[in-house]
Every structure is written in structure tokens, then in C-alpha cells.
Design a protein that fits this description.
It is built from 14 helices and 15 strands. The chain folds into 3 domains: 100 residues, no CATH class; 257 residues, Beta-lactamase (3-Layer(aba) Sandwich), CATH 3.40.710.10; 54 residues. By secondary structure, it is α+β, with helices and mostly antiparallel strands. The chain starts with a helix and ends with a helix. A hairpin with a 2-residue loop joins β8 and β9. α4 packs antiparallel against α5. The N terminus is likely disordered.
Length: 466
């Protein structure tokens, strides 16, 4: 408790000093530079750095559009979070036939067919199978004590939690519905959240997957990723992209082509969303935007570059008694800046009312939030301060003097008790032997006494005769 109070006090001291630092006037910097953005043909697009939330490019990113099958990335994430991959999913009549007529995407599953959740989700992400998306949603909804609509409600609740500004989902697969809509910005938020899940990354980045024989099909089914930047779907390898790590395609007549794509390079993880595009613009636009971002931006570690409050700055600000720092910056945090810009060109503000952390540094550059770092407690045990030492009440120590005679007496008693136990045991073990010996000696004495008496009587008789 004392250490926690000390940590709190030192943290308050650090935050106070930081506030003073932030409020101190700084020299006027040069006008913020942001790389010239490319022109694209797609109606709406955005590129967001996944871990920082930095928007590197956007065009009409908050305009409403139909998402089509990119809806399924959220369906997949919620299924992963609310079920186990080895659970058995049974296809209902509604899953197989409900709204899945005609030329929609499917893998021809049958009523009452059984697949594992893993097999279902690979079919959803790679083959964009509508009946599999419905079956997964229905399975999760029923596991929560509800039904298919329960899952749709979960989707809408999740987008609200993510801060989406223009999204409403009416189904789990993106089939046409006038009330089923989103925007590129919201899909980037959803995509970033999905990509942070390791299982999702594995499924979304797979090029192929084999669904084995089932209770309804005697032959395996081979799924292949339809995203042409990671797999040459139908032999088209013109759009393969070395840094692509996964994604999801979408298309309906109303939505046109929609595309969510993930890519990693030079320490940056990007999600690109393109909406309402004619083929193959969704792919050419995504490549153009990825090249623009990787060529013009860099990731800079906050802990390694923030000289004002990290390392010695933290120690000086946070600890006044010479102990190691009680607080430190998140070592994994970084910011995204143009490659021609120095780390010091970014400014930060301090947020103190942050859940699960002491405080947070939020960095901005050119009017954009470019990253943040949590201020966390270090695993350090501190010595009590002089003020705490005064409050510590030491328990009264009693001194007991032990004399040598007492030690001798105790040893003697222990030896005596041990001897008594030893001889007592021997007596018990040899009781009958000892008894026999005692009786034999008694009999022998009695005989000797009797013999002596006889001799005395004989002697007296002889004396009387003479």
C-alpha cells in the first residue's frame, strides 16, 4: 500500500512537470509538410495505419456506400471472438436457402450439413460463401441465447464501440439491403480491429484451404482466396502485391466493387479500403495508395525518440530519491510521419483520464493524429521515503536472556525423558522374559531356604539324640 501511494505521488509529480513542459512556449516551427496525394479513380478510399490509427490518405471516406461482402470481415471477427474453431456448425434451412438464391457466392452446402467453425470461416473469407456466413452468425447468436438477429445486433453494437460514424448492418454477408450501409472510414476502423486478432490474420492471409468430406458430401472442397493481390484468382497474377498480407473482396450491382486489403512493410501495418469502384480499379487504386504510403511515410519509435520525457527525462521528472524510474513509455508505441520530417516536428498533448493506464501522450502533426504512447508503471520496488519511515511503527522487540543452567536443565530433562522411553520400551518388549527370570530366582531362593530349614531340623534332631 505504501509503495502504491508513493508511485501515485511520483506519477502526480511527473504529470505536473509534464503539464508545465507542455504549457511552456515553444519556438515556431516550419509549416507542416504532408506528401502530395495521388489522384485515384475510385469514388471513395482510405488508407489507415492499423496500430496508430493514422489516416495517411482519404478521399470521400465518410460518404455512404453499400459494402457488399466486405461486411464479412466483421462477421468473421465476431465468430472468432465468440466461439471455438473446433465447434460444430450445423447448417439450417435458412442458412442454405435464405436470401442465397441465384448467382450469389456460396460453396453449395446442404441443409443439416456439419462443418467446424474453422472450416466455415475459411469458406467465408476465401470463397465469400454467404451460406457459411449465415450459419456462423446463427450459431453464435444461438450460443448467446438468441438467434440470427442477435448476431446482427452484436455487429451494430461493435461498430458503435469502434467509433464508426456512418454504418448500419442488416445482415452478416452484405447481400443487398437499402438499410445495410457503411463508409470507407468505418470499414478502415473495422478492418484495423480485425487485423489485430491473430486468428483473423491467419484466415484472411491464407491463399487456399481444404474442407474435408462431411456428412453430406463425399468429396473435399478446396477454397481459394479471391483477393488477387495475394492469390492469382482465376489465373490473374497482374495484381499480386509483395507486401499484401490478406484482405476481402466484395461486389454487388448496387455496391460495385469494394475491397479491403492489408499490407505490411518497414514496421508499418496498413489497411486500405476502396469502395464503389469499377473493375479493376479497386486493385490498381489499392496498389497506388500502398506505394504512396510506403514511399512517403515512416514509423518512428516514441520511446527511442522522445527526448523530453523518456529515459533520463522520466527519471528526473518521476523520481526524486535516486531510485529507478517508476514510470516509462510503452516501448512498442510509434508514430507515423513523412520521411522528410523529424520526430521533434510532432507535438503531443497529455491525456490523464485514460482507462487502464496512468496517462497517454497523443501526438499530432499537420492537423492529424499520428500516434500515441501510454505512460505505464515500471516493476520497481522503492525504499520508503523519510515521511513514510516516520509513519512506520516497528513492533516492540522483547529480549529474553537465557542462562547456562537453564540450558543444562533442559538438556537433562530431554535425556531423562529419552532414557525413560528407551528403557520403558525394552521393559515392555521383554516383559515375559524378565518375569520368568524373576520367578526362577524366587523359586531358587525358596528351594535354598527350604534346604537350609531341613538341615537345621536334622541338626536339632541329632543334638537331642546325643
Amino acid at each position: 500500500m505504501k509503495i502504491r501511494q508513493l508511485t501515485t505521488a511520483l506519477t502526480a509529480c511527473f504529470l505536473g512537470l509534464s503539464a508545465c513542459f507542455i504549457s511552456t512556449p515553444t519556438p515556431v516551427k516550419a509549416e507542416a509538410y504532408w506528401p502530395s496525394m495521388p489522384n485515384i479513380e475510385a469514388e471513395s478510399a482510405i488508407v489507415m495505419e492499423i496500430n496508430t490509427g493514422t489516416v495517411l490518405y482519404e478521399k470521400n471516406s465518410r460518404d455512404t456506400h453499400y459494402p457488399a461482402s466486405i461486411t464479412k470481415i466483421l462477421t468473421t471477427l465476431l465468430a472468432i471472438e465468440n466461439s471455438s474453431l473446433d465447434e460444430t456448425v450445423v447448417f439450417s434451412y435458412d442458412a442454405v436457402y435464405g436470401g442465397n438464391e441465384g448467382d450469389t457466392s456460396h460453396i453449395a452446402r446442404d441443409w443439416k450439413e456439419e462443418l467446424t467453425m474453422e472450416q466455415v470461416l475459411y469458406a467465408v473469407m476465401l470463397e465469400s460463401a454467404n451460406e457459411c456466413a449465415y450459419a456462423a452468425a446463427e450459431h453464435v447468436g444461438e450460443s448467446k441465447g438468441g438467434d440470427y438477429q442477435t448476431f446482427i445486433d452484436m455487429m451494430n453494437e461493435r461498430v458503435r464501440e469502434l467509433g464508426c460514424v456512418n454504418t448500419q448492418f442488416k445482415n452478416c454477408n452484405g447481400l443487398p439491403d437499402p438499410e445495410h450501409y457503411t463508409c470507407a472510414y468505418d470499414m478502415a476502423l473495422i478492418g484495423a480491429e480485425c487485423y489485430k486478432n491473430e486468428t483473423f490474420r491467419t484466415i484472411a492471409g491464407a491463399t487456399s484451404y481444404k474442407i474435408p468430406e462431411t456428412n453430406k458430401h463425399d468429396e473435399p472442397y478446396y477454397c481459394h482466396n479471391h483477393h488477387k493481390m495475394i492469390y492469382p484468382w482465376r489465373g490473374d497474377d497482374d495484381h499480386l502485391y509483395d507486401y499484401c498480407t490478406g484482405g476481402k473482396t466484395g461486389y454487388t450491382d448496387a455496391a460495385k466493387n469494394t475491397l479491403v486489403t492489408f499490407a505490411e512493410k518497414d514496421g508499418m501495418s496498413l489497411v486500405c479500403v476502396v469502395m464503389y469502384a469499377k473493375a479493376p480499379i479497386q486493385y490498381t487504386t489499392t496498389r497506388t495508395l500502398f506505394d504512396y504510403c510506403f514511399d512517403n511515410f515512416q514509423a518512428l519509435s516514441i520511446a527511442e525518440n522522445e527526448t523530453s520525457i523518456s529515459d533520463d527525462g522520466l527519471k528526473n521528472a518521476g523520481v526524486l530519491n535516486g531510485n529507478p524510474a517508476f514510470i516509462s513509455l510503452d516501448k512498442e508505441a510509434y508514430i507515423i510521419l513523412p520521411k522528410t520530417v523529424e520526430f521533434s516536428d510532432a507535438t503531443f498533448t497529455l491525456q490523464t483520464n485514460v482507462e487502464d493506464t496512468i496517462a497517454r501522450l497523443v501526438y499530432n502533426y499537420a492537423g492529424k493524429e499520428v500516434g500515441q504512447a501510454d505512460i505505464i508503471t515500471a516493476n520497481v520496488t522503492a525504499e520508503p521515503t523519510p515521511f513514510e519511515r516516520e509513519r512506520i511503527v516497528e513492533p516492540e522487540k522483547k529480549v529474553v536472556q537465557i542462562k547456562p543452567i537453564m540450558i543444562f536443565a533442559v538438556v537433562f530433562m530431554i535425556v531423562a525423558i529419552a532414557a525413560s522411553i528407551y528403557f520403558g520400551k525394552r521393559l515392555f518388549d521383554n516383559f515375559y522374559v524378565i518375569r520368568h527370570k524373576l520367578l526362577a530366582k524366587k523359586e531358587q531362593k525358596d528351594r535354598f531356604r527350604e534346604i537350609k530349614k531341613r538341615k537345621m531340623r536334622r541338626k536339632r534332631r541329632r543334638n537331642r539324640l546325643f
